[in-house]
Amino acid sequence: xxxxxxxxxxxxxxxxxxxxxxxxxxxxxxxxxxxxxxxxxxxxxxxxxxxxxxxxxxxxxxxxxxxxxxxxxxxxxxxxxxxxxxxxxxxxxxxxxxxxxxxxxxxxxxxxxxxxxxxxxxxxxxxxxxxxxxxxxxxxxxxxxxxxxxxxxxxxxxxxxxxxxxxxxxxxxxxxxxxxxxxxxxxxxxxxxxxxxxxxxxxxxxxxxxxxxxxxxxxxxxxxxxxxxxxxxxxxxxxxxxxxxxxxxxx
Length: 251
What we know:
Blueprint: E1 5-13, H1 17-28, E2 44-51, E3 54-61, H2 69-77, E4 84-89, H3 92-101, E5 106-112, E6 115-120, H4 122-125, E7 129-135, E8 161-171, H5 174-185, E9 193-196, E10 199-205, E11 210-218, H6 221-230, E12 235-236, E13 239-242, E14 245-250
Helix pairs in contact: 1-6
């Protein structure tokens, strides 16, 4: 099978799930396609919303405090920053082994046939978890993807939000982090960017290493910004803050 890698999913973490999902749905015009019962064993609940063929997921602990990895993440970061960047590829095990060879440990392996995922240790990835996964028979971007449920494609809406085009990562040494992520992903960094077929990771100067922002192409920026203000989000220019990250809008 030919090598490929695409951004499949971005996972954010919230102290409570329902209010954040309500805000994202109302502001961005996105619909929930699935809530995955498999995350309950990690002490979490979740919801996924498709942005074209990329899934935006939010997870939240059932109980407040540091009893889950997500809860510890919230406490450590003060709720700032995205949690996971999830990539589909031809062979998660092979890509995980290459990451291991450069000192990035495997944190978790998940198999729910036909889906198989390899999660890498966030401390070694820096800034966020990285997961590689593959679903048998899903090389079509609109094909099966079990984490998003059996009919995720039916929930795609493009009347407000068209695409998730860019992920912003912060670091005191952005080009160094870009090079590190490029090595893990097998896509060499171009300065402070790592370009995938369906998205770009852009690395910028910041105090801490975090996934700091998401850029969305929308139909009507003013309408989305008005909706963000109405939901109580802090709005500045073409962006607003929600669920630990900056939502940036382009036309």
